[in-house]
């Protein structure tokens, strides 16, 4: 009977199949079984297509199961495509597909499937941007559907995470390059302006990005922006006004009142300053009103200062008023105007005597330049010491100093109270070296008087990925052969070619992360010290006749006169080699010959600084230290000499050693790319620092200071400094272990620390012996017990300590020696 029933059922199924009346459930079950038993890829693909086309809520479950089955790896790509087409979307489809994004071979198929799924996938992916392990895959997938995901991306901008909002804005910016935002999307986007600026820099970046997106959608954005300028919320008003002005400069009068209001806000003020500067003269009425409002006075003055001579009348008018704060910010803004502030001299000069404003006035007069200098020199001879001091501050920003000023300042050097400040004014902003009895510094000619170096041979690109190239000695650095072919970045064969050496046109290559070399010949009819004036971008090293004479990292300016150095030329031909590093953006160099040698009598200056650094007044000591840093190698020997002469336990000695450490190396670069180079003072200061760090009898504080100074020297690859740093780090570890004996510890902790000290060994012995002098009795006992466990190897050190130590030390030495026996 059962056999007959089964046969009848099978017969019925076959009939139903033949007639096309198979139920969806039965068909799905049949297809699942066929998929389970199938082996050939084409057979499996046919079944997957049938399941995909079947209208059944469980079809996604079957496909998802096979997507997790390694035995179906050959059809995973087709399964992913199929899952992207099935609606409604199964609750596990998106999470499982997102997991597959990490598989490179499936990534594009997954991104396309998620794109077809739509907003459900978009919402999930946006949340995945928060996860460190899922961020990159989610960002990639969203980047493939940014246009379709615009609305969900804009909704995601309400999240509190700066990082997520930054990603979303980046995706939106790429999307609007292909298609514009809708009006509703723009209205949602404007709300980003109102996010609280918890992180100044990140919020500023958001403001800029949102403005850029709105500018790309200009025609659609304008009506919404004009409405938002009337918002109740200042941040939305200001952000909308900025974006509107960026799109349509004719909206200037409409947005100006909002910009003026934004000047009062501590975050928004910096956002609107560039726009106000761009508007220029038409903004003056609004700026004058803002300048007279205490809440916006400071930022209004900044804008007026950037406007130069245009903003000067408003600033100078305030100098006759009673508001000291307003006058102060006006004077500082005039200082940024520089020479163009000359018409305000008559208002500024009387204020040189003002106890509150005199110093700022003097600095501003110095920035105005030659026309103001006689007034500063006159103040040098004032009966008021404060006015004399102000004048020196002002003269310190004049460059170059006229001979009459040098003479006037030199007369002030012997003054015990003002001499150091006179030296600061004489030496600030210049590089000095000692030449016999003179301090000398190079002062380049103005550009129109320089002999431009414009006949160069250059070669590039060499690899500078991760800034490796600047410190890598590539083949041109070892030998110049203009006919030789070299191996450059990515194994390219490169040759020397001619260049004018003119700024960003010096090198033809426009890649990022490269270095190049430039060489020229300077013919001299005599041996003398010339002056090289140059500018560069991004990094530069300079060799003359094979000797490295300077190194600078980080872009300052391509302008001639950015830096000047002495060039020790010999009679005949001189080979000048430049190495220029490039990280990103433009790169290049300019160079020219010519200048004057500034010369000062060294003896009175160095004598005054020697006295100044030992002065009882900490202000004068600090000024002296700054002056020593400025003159560098010229004063280093005096400082080394003082270390051996002043009281060994004095704070002054520690200050001088700290100063010598700072002068021993220079940190170059910025951000995460900070490197050190040795300075001309390194050969003078390093031997002393090496002696101090190695001296067991020296105060621990001094050894730590010596370590700090040598650390930069070691990073500049000074071999002895590297050894000393490595050695001292072991010593410091031993010191810290022994010092922990002073604390309250369990016996287990004591045993553990003792074991660590025994492993350290000999470096810990001096600190254990010093422990005998501790006021903490348990420290003395623990030190003795640890030394005893070290055995007979410490006996010589113990006997030496008994010979030179006090009664307490003698007692504990004898106690320890007895335990060793």
Please provide a written account of the structure.
By secondary structure, the chain is of the alpha+beta class. Among the domains are: 180-252, no CATH class; 305-398, Leucine-rich Repeat Variant (Alpha Horseshoe); 447-593, Jelly Rolls; 735-820, no CATH class. It is built from 40 helices and 17 strands. The strands form five sheets. Strands 7-4-8-13-10-11 form a six-stranded antiparallel beta sheet, with no helix packed on it. It has a four-stranded antiparallel beta sheet with strand order 3-14-9-12, with no helix packed on it. Strands 1-2-15 form a three-stranded antiparallel beta sheet. Helix 2 (24-37) runs antiparallel to helix 3 and helix 38 (777-790) runs parallel beside helix 40 (807-820). The radius of gyration is 38 Å and the shape is globular. Residues 1-6 and 15-19 have low confidence and may be disordered.
Give the topology:
Blueprint (H helix, E strand, L loop, with lengths): L1 H18 L4 H14 L3 H13 L5 H9 L8 H10 L7 H8 L6 H11 L1 H10 L6 H9 L6 H6 L6 H14 L7 H7 L10 H17 L1 H11 L5 H14 L4 H11 L5 H12 L4 H8 L5 H10 L5 H6 L6 H14 L7 H4 L9 H11 L4 H8 L4 H11 L7 H10 L6 H9 L5 E3 L2 E7 L6 E2 L3 E8 L11 H4 L7 E2 L5 E2 L2 E3 L14 E11 L3 E10 L1 E6 L2 E6 L10 E7 L2 E11 L5 E6 L1 E7 H11 L5 H14 L1 H13 L5 H13 L1 E6 L2 E6 L3 H13 L5 H16 L3 H21 L7 H14 L4 H6 L6 H14 L4 H10 L2 H14 L1
Helix pairs in contact: 2-3, 3-5, 4-5, 5-7, 6-7, 8-9, 11-13, 13-15, 14-15, 15-16, 15-17, 16-17, 16-18, 17-19, 18-19, 19-21, 21-23, 23-25, 24-25, 25-27, 26-27, 27-30, 31-32, 31-33, 32-33, 32-34, 33-34, 33-35, 34-35, 35-36, 36-38, 38-40, 39-40
């Amino acid at each position: 009977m059962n056999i007959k029933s089964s046969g009848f059922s099978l017969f019925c199924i076959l009939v139903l199949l033949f007639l096309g009346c198979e139920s969806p459930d039965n068909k799905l079950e049949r297809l699942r079984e066929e998929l389970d038993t199938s082996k050939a890829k084409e057979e499996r693909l046919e079944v997957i297509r049938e399941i995909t086309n079947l209208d059944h809520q469980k079809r996604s479950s079957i496909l998802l199961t096979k997507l997790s089955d390694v035995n179906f790896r050959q059809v995973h790509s087709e399964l992913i495509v199929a899952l992207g087409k099935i609606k409604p979307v199964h609750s596990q489809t998106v999470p499982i597909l997102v997991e597959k994004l990490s598989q490179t071979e499936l990534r594009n198929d997954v991104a396309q499937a998620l794109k077809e799924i739509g907003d459900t996938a978009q919402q999930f992916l946006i949340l995945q941007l928060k996860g460190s392990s899922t961020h990159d895959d989610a960002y990639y997938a969203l980047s493939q559907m940014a246009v379709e995901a615009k609305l969900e991306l804009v909704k995601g901008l309400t999240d509190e995470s700066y990082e997520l909002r930054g990603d979303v804005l980046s995706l939106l910016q790429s999307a609007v390059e292909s298609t514009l935002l809708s009006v509703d999307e723009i209205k949602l986007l404007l709300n980003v302006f109102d996010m609280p600026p918890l992180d100044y820099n990140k919020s500023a970046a958001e403001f800029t990005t949102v403005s850029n997106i709105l500018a790309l959608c200009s025609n659609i954005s304008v009506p919404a922006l004009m409405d938002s300028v009337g918002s109740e919320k200042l941040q939305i008003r200001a952000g909308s006004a900025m974006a509107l002005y960026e799109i349509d400069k004719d909206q200037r009068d409409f947005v100006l009142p909002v910009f003026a209001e934004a000047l009062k806000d501590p975050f928004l003020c910096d956002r609107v300053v560039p726009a106000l500067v761009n508007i220029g003269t038409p903004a003056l009425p609004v700026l004058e009103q803002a300048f007279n409002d205490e809440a916006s006075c400071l930022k209004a003055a900044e804008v007026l200062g950037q406007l130069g001579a245009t903003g000067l009348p408003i600033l100078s008018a305030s100098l006759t008023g009673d508001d000291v704060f307003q006058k102060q910010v006006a004077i500082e803004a005039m200082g940024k105007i520089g020479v163009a502030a000359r018409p305000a001299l008559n208002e500024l000069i009387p204020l040189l005597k003002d106890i509150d404003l005199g110093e700022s006035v003097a600095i501003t007069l110095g920035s105005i330049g030659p026309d103001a200098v006689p007034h500063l020199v006159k103040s040098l001879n004032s009966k008021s010491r404060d006015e004399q001091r102000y004048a020196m501050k002002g003269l310190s920003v004049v460059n170059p100093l006229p001979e009459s000023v040098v003479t006037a300042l030199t007369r002030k050097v012997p003054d015990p109270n003002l001499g150091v400040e006179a030296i600061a004014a004489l030496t600030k902003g210049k590089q000095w070296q000692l030449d016999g009895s003179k301090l000398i510094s190079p002062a380049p000619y103005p550009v129109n008087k320089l002999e431009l170096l414009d006949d160069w041979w250059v070669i590039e690109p060499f690899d500078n990925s991760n800034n490796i190239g600047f410190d890598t000695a590539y083949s041109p650095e070892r030998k110049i052969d203009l006919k030789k072919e070299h191996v450059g970045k990515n194994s390219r064969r490169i040759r020397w070619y001619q260049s004018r050496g003119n700024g960003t046109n010096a090198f033809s290559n426009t890649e990022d992360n490269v270095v190049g070399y430039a060489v020229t010949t300077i013919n001299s009819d005599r041996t003398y010290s010339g002056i090289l004036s140059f500018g560069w971008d991004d990094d530069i090293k300079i060799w003359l006749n094979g000797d490295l004479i300077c190194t600078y990292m980080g872009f300052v300016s391509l302008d001639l006169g950015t830096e000047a150095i002495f060039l020790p030329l010999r009679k005949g031909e001189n080979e000048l080699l430049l190495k220029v590093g490039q990280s990103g953006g433009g790169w290049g160099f300019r160079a020219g010959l010519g200048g004057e040698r500034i010369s000062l009598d060294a003896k009175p200056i160095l004598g005054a600084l020697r006295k100044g650094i030992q002065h009882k007044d900490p202000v004068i000591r600090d000024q002296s230290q700054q002056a020593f840093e400025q003159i560098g190698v010229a004063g280093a020997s005096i400082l080394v000499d003082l270390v051996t002469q002043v009281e060994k336990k004095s704070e002054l000695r520690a200050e001088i050693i700290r100063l010598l450490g700072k002068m021993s190396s220079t940190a170059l670069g910025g951000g995460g790319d900070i490197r050190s180079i040795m300075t001309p003072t390194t050969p003078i200061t390093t031997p002393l620092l090496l002696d101090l760090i190695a001296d067991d009898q020296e105060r621990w504080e001094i050894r730590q200071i010596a370590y700090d100074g040598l650390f930069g020297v070691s990073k500049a690859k000074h071999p002895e400094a590297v050894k000393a740093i490595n050695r001292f780090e072991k010593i410091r570890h031993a010191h810290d272990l022994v010092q922990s004996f002073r604390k309250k510890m369990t016996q287990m902790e004591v045993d553990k620390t003792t074991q660590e000290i025994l492993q350290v060994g000999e470096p810990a012995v001096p600190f254990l012996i010093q422990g005998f002098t501790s006021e903490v009795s348990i420290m003395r006992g623990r030190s003795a017990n640890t030394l005893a466990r070290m055995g007979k190897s410490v006996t010589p050190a113990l006997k030496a300590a008994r010979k030179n130590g006090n009664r307490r030390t003698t007692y504990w030495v004898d106690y320890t020696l007895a335990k060793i026996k």
